[in-house]
Amino acid sequence: MDSIFLYSSLYLAFLMVLSLIRALIGPTVLDRMIGVNAIGSKSVVLLILIGFLYHRVDMFVDIALAYAMLNFIAVLAASRYFQKRKGLYDEALYR
Amino acid sequence: MDIMNIIVCVLLFSGLFFLTGGAVGILRFPDFYSRLHPAGKLDTLGSLLAMTAFALFNLHHFSMGALLTSLKILLIVVFIFLASPTATHGIVDAGVRAGLAPWTKGEKRR
Amino acid sequence: MDKQEEKGLGHEHNTSKVENSDQGPGRRKSFGLYVVTFFIMFGVWVVLSGKFDPFHLSLGVISCAIVAYLSADLLRPTVRGLLILLVRWVPYLLWLMKEIFKANLHVTYLVFHPRMMDLIDPKIVKFRSKLEGDLALVTFADSITLTPGTITVNVSPDGDFKVHAIDKASGEPLPGEMEARIAKAFGESDG
After folding, report:
1. Domain boundary assignment for chain B
2. Per-residue model confidence as pLDDT tens digits over B56-67
3. How many CB atoms are closer than 10 A to CB C165?
4. pTM of this prediction?
5. Who has the most CB within 10 Å: A65, B60, B104, C101?
């Protein structure tokens, strides 16, 4: 069972790299934010997997809970911040 | 391999499948609004399935501490279910207020 | 200057009026609300701390009592209404899980389809909902975001919805069955 968890966490890390590509090439700021949000929601799962690998789930589950809350608050704060920047994007000029 | 491990593996792999859909979807979809569909939905269900698998696997050696840890994992699931649509709505609202026009059929991808 | 002061006064007057109207019969500082809030919070405390010695439990009782005193107003309905709501919510949640699963299969099919660009046809759908309560509207908006190919863009307090649908088939059945089920769960259906 440990090896299944090990390969699953490696696969999750690969998925996070895919999301990171979107965060790097995204044309607008909000596209990058979607990528960061996707990385956050995957890393919550990854943290618990790491907990199973080290046989200390009781410790890592607290970290995962705190990380989920932090991710949520970060996305909300960033979206509240960027919506004030009207005309920041190229698409807005065409309307 | 007893039956419990098989259930855990099936749940975990289906969760990983939906998470894959989310990661590929935000790369393939053409614009900002349609990218939110995989990011908001597939990640939520993938996390739910994977977390349920972990909670079940954690109950394998039953004790009071293991039960508490499983309850905490379920608490994370409930939190994700409340938070994910709210975060999606926050990003979409930011896009609308900044004046991003939605992609329509026939345009090239952005 | 005068105008500003007037404006400020008017605003104050407005807010006080709102507060007054809120202190209707539903706002009665009932003891039951505190008890329900306290027990919900204490359950979360026990799960999060995981220690059962008297010291940690008494800390939990003290902090939960303080927070329950400060924020018991958050649970606006009366205690009996809340319990009935919970009972009605369970079938709705089960139905919602089934719908979420179907929606996710549909979106996954779209994601992995080789000619995905021909299949999707995003557009914004507008409609007006019959729901009235705040909680019902929030539940409806969250459910729309989680189910078939649709994301809530904007909700007004009157129930005007703006929804971004990813293809034609997923935008059509709105509001439809989901609204009826939420109205039933919150007891708003007039027949």
Report:
1. 3-97
2. 888 877 787 788
3. 24
4. 0.78
5. A65
